[in-house]
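cron nightly-structures :: item 1 of 1
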Amino acid sequence: MLGGSANVANNIIALGGEATVAGVAGKDRAGDVMRQLLDEKGIGSALFEDTRPTTIKTRVIAHNQQLVRFDKEESRRISGKVLENLVAFVQHAAGEHTAVIVSDYKKGVVSVN
């Protein structure tokens, strides 16, 4: 299931709009699944690969109620070529989109260097 900013993009698609998600994903199975889900939902994506793992959130649900959530993530700032490529993509996309929503949830993607 898509979460975070991908959930915002999914809501935009559900309302008949177009959306593109730009971000960072690990070189792992979770990143592959995220790319596949974005594609299946018709959400454009520019996911730049980093050495950190793709965030995974595991929810424990009983009787239709979430009891607890376990997050496997790394929130260090991105840097180097990954950051340069992401910033360049967002700058280019800003000129081609009606709106740009920047969402990070303090995960280290949006940072001041």
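cron nightly-structures :: done
The first helix runs from residue 4 to 14.
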